[in-house]
Specification:
Elements lengths: L1 H15 L3 H18 L13 H19 L4 H6 L1 H7 L4 H21 L2 H10 L4 H26 L5 H17 L3 H10 L1 H10 L1 H9 L5 H27 L1
Length: 243
């Protein structure tokens, strides 16, 4: 992990060396605040909790995370620096894990900066802070799942726009897989696939965390999901390296 952590520190510092960090964090904070207090009916609900916030975060990550990952490998390929990176004494797997950890830590920083919402609900009432913490943990796991997808897709192309569009589409499939529209359609036509869709739905797994339920099954799902896409990312890089 030492080599991976070196890559992670380098990539994490790179976010704050450019306007990327500021733009991402500002957009994220503005959108979460606006959606929570307006569409989420934060004050009209009469409850001191962050359910409105947690209901919007996965959908914001659906677009913002691919915008974060689209450059990770596509930019390296476009500039030709990927060859230099892969000739260093690190394996493609270590490079993949390093870039992923840097992006995940950056998302954690963005989530942490929403702490005024937590302060607000504690001022207005007596919320169950354990539920709030598990909700944040769920948000972080959703971000990790989307990051893993986005980094793998970014390794496929040198065009950042294509990487973004494909990543959004892939993330949307896993986000909407458990929605009533999809499951009802599959239940009527392919009953077996309806259960598969629910099992692969990121939002379905996230829902338990927002209720304060930490399930080993959900943890295993997110860990396996992230590991699969990171493995696929490493395989793609190995293939590109061979080319």
């Amino acid at each position: 992990m030492k080599a991976a952590m070196i890559v992670a520190r380098r990539e994490f510092a790179a976010y704050f060396a450019t306007p990327v960090a500021t733009v991402f964090i500002v957009i994220f904070l503005v959108l979460t605040g606006a959606l929570t207090f307006t569409l989420g009916g934060f004050f009209t609900r009469g409850q001191a909790d962050l359910i409105p916030f947690f209901s919007f975060v996965p959908w914001l990550f659906l677009f913002l995370v691919p915008a974060l990952t689209m450059r990770l490998w596509a930019e390296e390929r476009r500039l030709g620096t990927i060859e230099l990176l892969l000739t260093l004494p690190i394996t493609p797997g270590q490079a993949v894990v390093g870039k992923f950890l840097a992006a995940w830590a950056f998302c954690a920083v963005a989530l942490a900066l929403t702490f005024p919402l937590w302060i607000t609900i504690n001022v207005l009432g007596q919320p169950d802070n354990g539920v709030v913490l598990t909700g944040y943990l769920g948000c972080l796991l959703v971000a990790g799942a989307y990051l893993a997808i986005g980094t793998a897709i970014s390794a496929l192309t040198r065009n950042q726009v294509i990487a973004f569009v494909l990543a959004v589409a892939a993330c949307f499939l896993f986000a909407a897989a458990g929605s009533p529209v999809v499951t009802e359609f599959l239940s009527a036509n392919l009953p077996v696939m309806a259960d598969v869709a629910r099992g692969l739905s990121v939002n379905e797994r996230f829902a338990g965390f927002t209720r304060g339920v930490i399930s080993a099954r959900d943890f295993i799902f997110f860990a396996s999901f992230i590991a699969f896409w990171l493995f696929l990312n490493a395989v793609i890089l190995e293939h590109k390296k061979a080319d």
